[in-house]
Structures are given as structure tokens and as C-alpha cells.
Design a protein that fits this description.
By secondary structure, the chain is of the alpha/beta class. Helices cover 28% and strands 23% of the residues. The strands form 3 sheets. Strands 7, 8, 9, 10, 11, 16 and 19 form a 7-stranded mixed sheet that branches. Helix 7 links the parallel strand 7 and strand 8. Helix 7 runs parallel beside helix 9 and helix 11 packs parallel to helix 12.
Length: 497
């Protein structure tokens, strides 16, 4: 209820020509009747978008209904917890926040709610606000067909069809006061393919699977940061389109920017590279929010208290940013770049499960993955950067061992390609892959999937998280349960993560 004034102010802007905001009584009824169905997006405490919905027994209304009838004139007196359809009551985004894909975020949240409540579908009466401009030339049916074929753009209908909604039919006098739509609306439907009449509500259940996308990054010359970010956005956009929960970039994917250093000395180039980290991190965090995907932003050099570190960043799709410092710099990183190691190890809570991040060389130290397994991580992400095949194989073999030892998935993402004019980036060898434990429930070679070596590409993998639980309790061997904790243990004695 504390959000009412903010919602009211926003609706008065969005609907200044179409009746303005809900009354406080309507808003109170919606919140008290079906709180889970009312969703908003906030930016620093300011509400910038919202979606309202109700559960109905759809057969009571049928396809021929008005907005007032099926929503109880927005009081949602029609709400039926035992109903079978999630019906859209309202949906709006602040004009100042359009273009950030917030509408898509709200639609995905509604779909998730529909799946969690095990409802058949989402339905709504959709406005067609541009129809008034074409009413003299065509019927609503003809208008809808031209929007479908993309000959006409309608800000509401085009958006809805792009997000999986089908037009079931045209509704007349759906909202008589909607002048721009001339009272017409489309009856829209999104089918929940996971609907199971015998299955109980899944609300508040844990995710049973996760889709991750890894980028096998081709090193290329960039003239500035914006060119590099354009390439990053291309991959993020593509992985988002495939509904990935997580995107993983390689270690030092931004290394080509070292070529912009005025000095040819390797130490000057890597410290110069660190000057771009804040800008890149802010931009990638915005991409995570905008494209609704969590991103492990590879790793980047960071100058902190006049010391150089190698840091992997986890950009959550809700705007949070967390970090994991590389704990073990390689001998070259220590001697050639004067790089320091971090002193904290963190298991990260995400909206699909718990993950850990170990940067390249760190995965070759089994104690770290063991400590993370005690925190019950399900996926270990390893951004890496290797120049030779033997260096790559060290990372690969150790990653495979970590998956078996700790009964988790391990995803490694690396770079490929050569940049002869950039010192330290002149040769690359890499093959991105996802490894699993080795047992009957998993692939016979414990490799979930892998890329073609030394070719730029993306790897998209669905991971069954329930199999990890089954393995720990019923596997042929049970490394986690069978550890002799009475004889030995691995203990973290550094600062807490």
C-alpha cells in the first residue's frame, strides 16, 4: 500500500489522455486480494513500471467479455484462487524508462508467475492505440493482420506478439473510453506449455534447471571502448534471446584495449587496461538489467590502493554487482605485471541457484572448489585465458576434476585468436566447455557440451540441477557424503567473503 502514491503519479503520466490513475480503493483491493499478481520495477526506490493481474475461472466469462466484466472494473472481485487463467489487468512503463526492455522484464515475470501457479495460460485484452489512424481505411481485423505481417507498427500489439502472445479474436467495446483504439481490443493468449492439471502450485519452489551461455571470444582490434561494448552487447543480446539465465565471458576478454596504451611495455599496457574497468563494468551491469540475464563479466584488471588485481564481476539482472578476485596470480602476472592476489572467496546466490567463480589458474587449486562445495554451489564458472594448448589442458583437466570431486557443473569460457601487434595477446588457444560429474545420470564422458577449438562461437547448455541432488544421495559414489570429516578438512583462514 505504501506504493500507491508512486503508482498513481506514474499512471497519471502514462494515462493522461485515457482516464488517469486507479483510485486508491481499486489499488487496495488488488493488493489485498492477490498481492502476488501485482508486480513493479523500481530504480533506486522509484517505481518506473508495473503490471497488475488476476486469476479467473475463464469458462465463467468466455471469449466475449469486457474489461469491466472480467476484472470487476479493476477491483478484481472476479479473482478465483482455484481459477485456471492469469488475466492481465494493467501494464505500463514510465516514458522516461522506455527502451530499456522493462516491458519484457514484466512479461517474463508474469510468465514465471503463471508457471509457478501452474495456470493454463495468460490472457488479456490488448489495446490497439494506433488503430484510430487507420480506421477510415480498414477494419480492426485487417489492421491486426497488417500488424502481424509487420506492415504496420502498433506500440502495444507489436510488443505483445513479439513476446509470444497470439491474437485469439477481436473484442468490441472492450474499453469504450479508449478513444485511440476506438473501444476495440485484441484478445491475447500465451500458453503455458508446462501446465499440468495434476501438479500443485510451484510458487516459491527452487529452480530445477538453469540455462547458461558461454562466449568463446575472438580477440580482435578495437579502436575504443564503445566498439568492444558493441561486441559484448551482441553476445548478451543473442544469449538473452535464447532465454539464458547466465552469460559467461572469458578472463581478460578486454585485453585488446591494451593496444591503445601509449607504451609498449607490458606492465604499462596492463595498468592502462585497468583504466577502462569501471566504464566496462557499469555498461555490462546495464546490459544485465536491460536484457534480463545474469552476466559473469569475465575478469578485468583493477587498480585498488595502488595495487593491481584481476577481478571477475557477477552482474545480476536485478542490478546488484558482486566480485571475486583472482587469488593466485600466475608467476608472469606477479613478476611481469606486479599483480596481487585477492584474499576472499565467495559463493554467490543467484535467482536460479548458487554459483562460484574461480579465475583460470585458481581452478588448479582444489581447496578452493572444495570450500565452495561446502557452501553448496551447483555451478562453478571458470573464465580463463590461455595462450598454448598445454596451458589450456591444465585448466581443462583441473576443471573436470573439480566437477567430479565436488559433484557440481563446471563451465569454462576462454578466448581465441591472435593479435600480433598487441604484446601478451599475440596468441591464444581455447575451447569452451561445460563439465558434469561422472555417473549414469550424466553424459558418458562427463562433458555436457563443448565448442570447436579456436573458433568464435557461443555455447548454450541446459543444466539439470535436480540431478546433482540425486547424485549426492544415490550416486555410484558419493564424494560429498563420503568425505571422512572425522579425519581431515579444508578450512578457510582468510577474511570472510
Amino acid at each position: 500500500m505504501d506504493d500507491f502514491e508512486a503508482i498513481k503519479s506514474l499512471m497519471e503520466v502514462v494515462y493522461k489522455d485515457d482516464g488517469g490513475a486507479f483510485t486508491k480503493k481499486r489499488y487496495q483491493a488488488q493488493i489485498s486480494t492477490f498481492a502476488d499478481g501485482q508486480i513493479c520495477i523500481e530504480d533506486k526506490g522509484q517505481i518506473v513500471a508495473a503490471a497488475f493481474s488476476v486469476i479467473v475461472d475463464y469458462d465463467k466469462f468466455g471469449d466475449k467479455h469486457t474489461y469491466e466484466e472480467i476484472t470487476g472494473d479493476a477491483y478484481i472481485t472476479t479473482h478465483d484462487p482455484k481459477g485456471d487463467v492469469l488475466y492481465g489487468v494493467d501494464f505500463f512503463v514510465s516514458p522516461n524508462y522506455r527502451g530499456l526492455r522493462l516491458g519484457r522484464r514484466l512479461y517474463e515475470a508474469r510468465k514465471e508467475l503463471c508457471r509457478n501457479l501452474n495456470l493454463k495460460s495468460i490472457m488479456a485484452g490488448g489495446r490497439i492505440p494506433n488503430y484510430s489512424k487507420y480506421a477510415q481505411k480498414m477494419t480492426p481485423y485487417e489492421y491486426i493482420e497488417q500488424v502481424k505481417s509487420k506492415e504496420i507498427y502498433d506500440p502495444t500489439l507489436s510488443f505483445q506478439m513479439n513476446h509470444g502472445f497470439e491474437v485469439k479474436q477481436v473484442l468490441k467495446a472492450y474499453l469504450p473510453e479508449d478513444k485511440s483504439s476506438l473501444g476495440y481490443a485484441t484478445l491475447l493468449q500465451w500458453h503455458n506449455m508446462y501446465y499440468d492439471a495434476d501438479q500443485p502450485s510451484l510458487l516459491a519452489s527452487k529452480f530445477s534447471s538453469a540455462r547458461i551461455g558461454l562466449v568463446q571470444w575472438q580477440m580482435r582490434y578495437f579502436d575504443d571502448v564503445s566498439e568492444l561494448l558493441q561486441q559484448v552487447e551482441y553476445f548478451v543480446d543473442a544469449l538473452s534471446d535464447y532465454k539464458c539465465d547466465l552469460a559467461v565471458l572469458p578472463e581478460f576478454y578486454n585485453a585488446p584495449l591494451m593496444g591503445l596504451s601509449e607504451s609498449d611495455a607490458p606492465i604499462d599496457a596492463i595498468w592502462h587496461l585497468a583504466t577502462y574497468t569501471e566504464e566496462l563494468l557499469n555498461a555490462i551491469s546495464e546490459l544485465a538489467i536491460s536484457y534480463n540475464i545474469n552476466i559473469v563479466a569475465g575478469s578485468m584488471p583493477l587498480i585498488e590502493d595502488d595495487e593491481l588485481y584481476n577481478v571477475a564481476y557477477l552482474c545480476h539482472r536485478d542490478g546488484r554487482v558482486e566480485s571475486q578476485y583472482k587469488l593466485h596470480p600466475t608467476p608472469y602476472e606477479k613478476n611481469g605485471w606486479l599483480m596481487k592476489g585477492g584474499d576472499r572467496l565467495t559463493a554467490f546466490e543467484t535467482d536460479f541457484g548458487k554459483i562460484g567463480i574461480l579465475i583460470c589458474y585458481d581452478v588448479e587449486f582444489p581447496e578452493l572448489a572444495r570450500l565452495l562445495s561446502e557452501e553448496e554451489i551447483q555451478i562453478l564458472c571458470v573464465p580463463f585465458w590461455t595462450d598454448t594448448k598445454n596451458g589450456y589442458l591444465r585448466v581443462r583437466r583441473c576443471a573436470q576434476a573439480r566437477a567430479i570431486e565436488n559433484e557440481c557443473y563446471v563451465a569454462i569460457a576462454g578466448s581465441v585468436g591472435n593479435l600480433p601487434k598487441v604484446d601478451n595477446v599475440d596468441i591464444q588457444y581455447g575451447q569452451t566447455a561445460v563439465f558434469s560429474p561422472s555417473d549414469f545420470a550424466f553424459p558418458h564422458d562427463a562433458i555436457v557440451s563443448e565448442t570447436t577449438p579456436n573458433t568464435e562461437m557461443m555455447l548454450i547448455v541446459d543444466l539439470d540441477l535436480d540431478k546433482l541432488v540425486q547424485l549426492q544421495n544415490e550416486g555410484s559414489v558419493r564424494n560429498y557424503l563420503d568425505k571422512r570429516r572425522d579425519l581431515y578438512r579444508v578450512q578457510w583462514i582468510g577474511p570472510k567473503g
